[in-house]
Design goal:
Low-confidence stretches: none
Number of strands: 10
Strand order of the largest sheet: 1-9-10-2-3-4
Oligomer: single chain
Distance between the termini: 20 Å
Structural class: alpha+beta
Largest sheet: 6 strands, mixed
Order of helices and strands: HEHEEEEEHEEEE
Shape: globular
Strand content: 35-45%
Mean pLDDT: 96
Helix content: 10-25%
Length: 140
């Protein structure tokens, strides 16, 4: 079993609100693994090899590369270098689509062509909350 798959197996069944332990974060960071999951009704969280979050109210598409999540705020700046850096990174970035309430019993699921493993976060009442993903930076 790969370290990516072992991490997904170790965190599956976690209770909402999900928070990655410091030990698991260190393990994921050392392995070059990123964990993606939903928080609340409006956040897409990234943890492990890098950390970040996106506003994902009613769903969104994140663009990721080995450096992290691309920050769309760069496009709103009047800084030509920041805009150029964003555009350059986006050309090679991969997409992860956050799906809010996709009709499969989860509040959050994710769709991507990045090779990944999945894990489940369970709500306090035992219901499915999120089907998160775990991927390797090396696959980007």
């Amino acid at each position: 079993m790969s370290e990516r798959d072992a991490i997904a197996a170790a965190i599956t069944g976690a209770e909402y609100p999900f928070r990655l332990s410091a030990g698991m974060r260190d393990r994921a960071k050392a392995a070059g693994v990123v964990i993606v999951y939903g928080a609340s009704d409006d956040l897409m969280e990234f943890d492990g090899a890098y950390r970040g979050e996106l506003d994902a109210y009613e769903g969104t598409t994140a663009y990721v590369d080995k450096e992290g999540v691309l920050d769309r705020a760069a496009l709103e700046d009047d800084d030509d270098q920041a805009i150029a850096a964003y555009v350059t990174r986006k050309r090679a970035a991969r997409e992860i689509e956050a799906l809010w309430d996709p009709g499969d019993g989860y509040s959050w699921t994710y769709k991507t062509d990045i090779p990944h493993a999945t894990f489940e976060v369970i709500d306090t009442d035992g219901e499915k909350y999120c089907r998160g993903i775990v991927f390797n930076l090396a696959d980007l």
